[in-house]
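Backbones bend. To wit:
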Amino acid sequence: MTSSGPSIEPDRYVPPALPPVRAGLWHVAAPVTIIWLVACVVLLLFFIPTLQANDAMVWLWTCLAGFVLGVMGLSVYAWQRRAARRGSRSANRMALDEAI
């Protein structure tokens, strides 16, 4: 039985290059993370009694989760950027194309 496609040896396979960054992750993720924080603070300062009365505390936890996940995502992005600058082979080099 013959295969019609080219044979690829697993130890010699080189994955294709990733496409260039078109949108600035930092310019999108940082403001959205700040918006989640502002929403959480507004809910904490002004709407806690209303949320408790209507059994809607999930809004507060959603804002807090959005902020925490945003901070985690920005941390991973900064970590990858530092690794790419350091020259680590496993780092994602797309982060270097964006100007913060």
